[in-house]
Every structure is written in structure tokens, then in C-alpha cells.
Design a protein that fits this description.
Elements: E1 8-11, E2 18-19, H1 21-34, H2 42-46, H3 53-60, H4 65-79, E3 85-86, H5 90-99, E4 103-107, H6 112-121, E5 130-132, H7 144-153, E6 157-162, H8 165-173, E7 177-181, H9 188-192, E8 198-200, H10 204-209
Parallel strand pairs: 1-4, 1-6, 4-5, 6-7, 7-8
Antiparallel strand pairs: 2-3
């Protein structure tokens, strides 16, 4: 195998590797209740998952966005593990890709420290080569988090795997093929608008595209 052969696979985290939306939404809504503010519906919050936290709060309560972000960041680290679990088959797919010689990274909108804590708590830390959060640079759909992840892996990228159009557009901007899963945030129809290379209900098809490296 040539040392210049691209081996990097990037994965979004929430809604892609881990079914974490219930804990995220609970923490998001906690701030409204805590401060006595009218809360949006679960469906309204779910539609914005994947955007930066402050942008999400600004959508619903612009004058309270900073205060609500503080409430979320106090609540979520204490409650992120209550209902969150890896999606079925995720551990097996990651393990298989590692065994086939690929380098695996998370590329998430979460802050780096929280993302690493979360990955470890979900039992996925040993299956990933790097966890890249979004710290001090543009969020998806900008490709910056993917570029940082691949730099840390020390290899070129092949696929970006995600559950939102933001993930897919970031992957496309980074020059990667894109794989969309429908078990997360965005429905099949919305994901299709970003024209991913694969649009699937789970991660199984990814293994078809990534045979063992020799």
C-alpha cells in the first residue's frame, strides 16, 4: 500500500454514529424551562440539529441566546448519557473499517472536549483514530472541521458520513464522497436535495465501497 493512498473516513457524531437526539433536545429545552421562557416544539428543535448551538437559540429567542447557551452547557454534560446509544451496527462497521486499514475520525459541530467525552462514554473511543470538534473555526457546511480531522489523521479523505445536509455539503466542499444515513436528523427527501453519493437507512453499504487495503 502506498503511503500516499488516502485512507481517511470522516463521520458526523450525533444522529450518525449515536442516537443522541433525545438527550440533546431535552438539554436544549431545559434552558427555556429554567428561565421561564416559551419553549419551541421538539419538531422545531429537531429540524435545526447540526447547526451551531447559538444559532439554534437565536432562531427562537434571539435576546436570550447567550443565556440559553450557558444553561445548555451546564445541563448537557451532566445528562448526555441518559438515553444516548450507538446506532445498531455502528461498532461493527467501525471495527471492520479499522481492520481493513482505514483511518477513522469524527468531524462534529460539538466542541472538541465535549465530543471526546461523549465518544468515550458511548464506548466508541477505541474504534476511532481521532475526534475533531469545531473549536474556533467555521461550522459545517464549511469544510474546516473535515480538513482539521484529516490533518490529524495524516491522510487524504475518502468519505464523509452524516445525517444532515450540512454534513453532506461540508463533505462535498472538502472534496470527499458523501454518505447519508436516514436514521438521524434529516429525512430521506431532505437529504436527497444535497445529492449524496449514497443515501441509506444504515451504514452497511459503506463497507461495500471500502474493501480491505493491501
Amino acid at each position: 500500500m502506498s503511503t500516499v493512498t488516502p485512507r481517511g473516513i470522516c463521520f458526523d457524531l450525533d444522529g450518525t454514529l449515536v442516537d443522541s437526539l433525545p438527550d440533546i433536545i431535552d438539554s436544549f429545552l431545559h434552558g427555556f424551562t429554567h428561565h421561564g421562557l416559551p419553549a419551541p416544539s421538539v419538531a422545531e428543535v429537531r429540524a435545526l440539529i447540526g447547526q451551531p448551538l447559538e444559532a439554534m437559540y437565536t432562531r427562537f429567542a434571539p435576546e436570550h441566546a447567550t443565556t440559553l447557551c450557558v444553561a445548555y452547557r451546564e445541563h448537557y454534560p451532566l445528562n448526555f448519557h441518559r438515553r444516548s446509544r450507538p446506532f445498531p451496527g455502528v461498532e461493527r462497521v467501525l471495527r471492520t473499517l479499522r481492520e481493513r486499514g482505514y483511518l477513522l475520525a469524527v468531524a462534529t459541530t460539538k466542541r472538541g472536549d465535549m465530543a471526546r467525552r461523549f465518544v468515550d462514554a458511548m464506548g466508541l473511543g477505541g474504534l476511532l483514530h481521532h475526534v475533531q470538534g469545531t473549536d474556533g473555526f467555521p461550522h459545517k457546511p464549511a469544510p474546516d472541521v473535515i480538513h482539521h480531522a484529516l490533518k490529524a489523521l495524516g491522510t487524504g479523505g475518502l468519505w464523509m458520513v452524516g445525517d444532515t445536509t450540512l454534513d453532506l455539503r461540508a463533505g462535498q466542499a472538502a472534496g470527499l464522497k458523501t454518505y447519508a444515513v436516514t436514521w438521524g436528523t434529516h429525512a430521506h427527501e431532505e437529504l436527497a436535495t444535497a445529492m449524496p453519493d449514497e443515501l441509506q437507512p444504515d451504514l452497511e453499504r459503506l463497507l461495500h465501497h471500502l474493501p480491505p487495503l493491501v
